[in-house]
Design goal:
The chain is mostly beta strands and 417 residues long. 6% of the residues lie in helices and 35% in strands. The protein has three helices and 28 strands. Strands 5, 6, 9, 11, 12, 13, 14 and 17 form an eight-stranded antiparallel sheet that branches.
């Protein structure tokens, strides 16, 4: 490159005269003006991101794809929605994926539990509730409600959220979203009622009149202790999976429990099915990705409210104790489990007495004829039971309670809301 002309003198009238001579000098040298440095740094310095110390880099420079509140930047340089476990808001619903179904009930009457933490509400009669497997990618399980009655009726599924798990949302917005499908073209309704009565003493059957089209307290809903807002209608096409309408409710400052309720708006014919999955209720005004948790963790949370033990037929041992008389017995430590970690003292259900036997002092099985206390959880959380046989026991002798030779036995502990 040729040497540059001297800078213009103060007496020179025009700076562009000097600039022209500068360009001509560079051209005469057969080269171009070398402008690769600025403040003593080469161009490569300013292209090195490690030298940035101010300003905000545009998301388009960080990766490809759409960058917004629902995506994150992956290691391969693309923006993507999280598939679970990272950054999504806490789900106030327990068992929103319907992974846990300890009861596995064949049919459900109005206001009875089926999938753990979920209970059925029906207009006139029983329905069948089952689990669907491998419904679609990202939805391995859904709950299915089947309308079993010859006459059309409305039906729905609901969950009550414990006060300890939702009162922190007072005065805030919460958002509900789920995956759903109806086997007929019809509407569903979605609501998040607020219970303002005594905490954890909720009237679970929140419906006052199934036929009312006024979705307020005292009309469709019960008139006492409920605050109802933003009941949402959604039209569904027959046999088509869909995301639910995103429902956002601004909560009051005095509720003690929340209820999530999803139901068919109209009476549906026999064998119509309603599928529900991936239910998420979260604090905030936007819906985030549903998170799948390890099954054992979901089961642990469900067992705070309900737990069940199943013993196959054949005399399998349930608990040990002693004979209080020749026709009476007492056992404790049923199922070798403590219930003190449950929400409250549970109600124990052992089913029919005919599903059990006790052993006499000679080791012979004697059929249980009735229960005195069919199962109680003491203050210590230990489950005990007592009952009777027709004869054959030795007072004071050790005994074992077991399942019947021909009948399986089921014991449950429940303290639902």
């Amino acid at each position: 490159m040729s040497s540059l002309p001297p800078p213009p003198k103060a007496s020179e009238p025009r700076f562009d005269d000097w600039l022209y001579r500068f360009w001509k000098s560079a051209a005469a040298g057969g080269g171009a003006v070398d402008a690769d440095t600025l403040n003593g740094q080469p161009g490569s310095y300013y292209r090195n991101a490690s030298n940035l110390n101010a300003g905000t880099v545009a998301t388009a420079r960080l990766g490809s794809g759409t960058a917004d509140s629902t995506t994150f930047l992956r290691g391969d340089g693309t923006w993507a929605a999280p598939s679970g476990g990272g950054g999504a808001a806490e789900n106030l619903i327990i068992n929103g994926g319907f992974q846990v179904n300890q009861r596995a009930a064949a049919t459900n009457a109005d206001d009875t539990y089926s999938h753990d933490r979920w209970y059925a509400l029906t207009q006139t009669g029983t329905i069948a509730i089952t689990s669907l497997a491998d419904v679609e990618n990202t939805t391995p399980v859904m709950a299915r409600l089947t309308q079993s009655q010859a006459s059309a009726q409305r039906m729905g599924y609901a969950q009550i959220i414990e006060a300890k798990n939702c009162k922190h949302a007072r005065g805030q917005a919460v958002t509900l979203k789920f995956r759903t499908r109806l086997s007929s073209t019809d509407n569903i309704r979605i609501a998040v009622p607020e219970w303002t009565g005594t905490a954890d003493t909720v009237t679970s059957d929140v419906v006052n009149s199934w036929t009312s089209t006024t979705y307020t307290a005292g009309n469709f809903f019960l008139g006492s202790n409920l605050t109802i807002s933003n009941v949402t209608q959604q039209a569904l096409t027959a046999n088509t999976l869909a995301n639910s309408t995103t429902v956002t409710v601004t909560l009051g400052s005095s509720f003690n429990n929340l209820i999530v309720f999803i139901w068919t708006e109209n009476a549906v014919a026999q064998n119509v099915t309603l599928d529900i999955g991936k239910v998420k209720l979260e604090v905030g005004s936007a819906a985030t990705t549903f998170e799948w948790f390890d099954y054992s963790e979901v089961l642990r949370r469900c067992r705070r409210y309900y737990r069940q033990w199943n013993f196959a037929a054949g005399g399998f041992p349930v608990a040990t104790g002693y004979c209080t008389a020749t026709t009476a017995w007492f056992v404790s430590g049923l199922c070798a489990e403590n219930t003190s970690d449950m929400r409250d003292t549970p109600t124990i259900d052992m089913g029919a007495a005919g599903n059990y036997l006790v052993y006499d002092s000679a080791g012979s099985a004697v059929a249980v004829t009735s229960f005195n206390a069919p199962g109680n959880a003491g203050a210590s959380g230990v489950i005990y039971a007592s009952g009777y046989v027709s004869s054959g026991l030795t007072a004071g002798a050790a005994t074992t309670l077991g399942s019947s030779v021909s009948n399986a036995a089921t014991i449950s502990a429940a303290v639902e809301l």
